[in-house]
Amino acid sequence: MTRTLPLVSLCTFLLTCTSSEENVQSVKDSIQVDSTEVIEAPTPKNYQRIVAIGSPITEILIDLEATDNLVAVDKYTTTTPVTKKLPKVGYGRILTSERVLKHRPDLVLSTKEASPNNVVSEVQNQKIDYLLFEPQYNLASTQQLIEELATLIDKKAKGQAIIDKIQEDITTVKEQMSDIKYKAKILYIFANNETNLMLAGENTPADALIQLAGAENALNNSEGLVRLTATEVTKAAPTYFLMTTQSLRSLEGRANLNKIPGYYDTTAGKMGRLILIDESELLDFGASLGTNALSLSKKIYPAAY
Questions:
Q1: Which of the four pLDDT bands, split at 50, 70 and 90, describes residue 29?
Q2: CATH architecture type of domain 183-304
Q3: DSSP string spanning 176-242?
Q4: 85 burial type by CB count under 10 A (0-12 exposed, 13-18 middle, 19+ buried)
Q5: 3-state secondary structure of 54
Q6: Can you tell me the distance from the alpha carbon of 173 to that of 178, in angstroms, rounded to the nearest whole number?
Q7: Which residues on adjacent β-strands are paired with residue 274?
Q8: Under DSSP, is residue 53 helix (H, G, I), strand (E, B) or coil?
């Protein structure tokens, strides 16, 4: 069986302010935490051997305590001790039906982008269920993906507990932001090396996490990843820069931040306002989403906590 399970479209977590009066509106009033669309749930089966392709799916299955049923994951999901030890099946263009079938799965769970159509068809022809998901980088989609997977493997109570914990953490952010009148502006920098530098605009994982943490993406006038230039950096005028520890390592440490065009032309750069998070915190829109948003919020607004 092949089935694509649509997840909710990107929702706006923070209201856009258009006047000085609106700019002083409490952050508490502008974080949305309750927009989950209800769709038909899959029928649970007693699946014993699961191949998971796509880090959001794999991480959620681990948190649902389905580790014993995982027989393989994609090559990019290596953020936990469990996934590092499991066999790898590839991803996208390098995924083949042979790599999947050799693990004798009775269920394959994948993000849609990770599984070519021919692979899905070839595995399906072997009478193996192959379910495709289209998760978005937002709260509602994450909650729904957890619910779908929990229902599918008959762990609905555990799934609801995970959803409740995410909701609790996001609500904590909302409550602690009640006295914050101005949102901090955060500029996320991705660095593969000193010549490959990007900024994160709207509809990116960084954008969603920044907003869930009660802040504003300083590059909210652009979509997706944007090539970093000195002009873009200084125009953004961030309160803080945000990077992953992996990106900073690719620059060989803080001593080389001066290689980022425009970095020290900003107040944030001159004041040393750089927040570091692990790459997994940025990309894990699964069970850890609430924890990651709360952790980032504490780094942005330490006085509020």
A1: very low
A2: 3-Layer(aba) Sandwich (3.40)
A3: HGGG--SPPEEEEEEEEETTEEEEE-BSSHHHHHHHHTT-EETTTTSBSEEE--HHHHHHH--SEEE
A4: exposed
A5: coil
A6: 9
A7: 241
A8: strand
Decide the pairing of beta strands 185-193 and 107-111: unpaired
For Cα atoms 112, 132, 126, give the angle at the middle one, nearest 5 degrees: 115
- Identify whether the C-beta of residue 193 lies closer than 8 Å to the C-beta of residue 250: yes
Per-residue pLDDT tens over the stretch 67-102:
999 999 998 887 678 888 999 999 999 999 999 999
Taking each continuous run of H as one helix and of E as one strand, the counts in the chain are 13, 11
Q: Mean pLDDT across the stretch 227-250?
A: 97
- All structural domains of the chain with their residue ranges: 2-175, 183-304
Beta pairing partners, 168: none
How far apart, in whole angstroms, are the C-alpha atoms of residue 215 and residue 27? 8
Scanning the structure block, which residue is given the tokens 């089966």? 45
pTM for this prediction: 0.80
Same fold, 2-175 and 183-304: yes
Q: Is the pLDDT reported for residue 132 higher than 60?
A: yes
Task: Describe the crossing of helices 139-152 and 156-176 by its angle, rounded to 10 degrees.
Answer: 160
Does domain 2-175 fall under CATH 3.20.20.60? My reply is: no
Tell me the pLDDT band of 6, cut-offs 50, 70 and 90: very low
Q: Which two tokens stand for residue 153?
A: 């493997």
Location of structure tokens 């125009």: 235
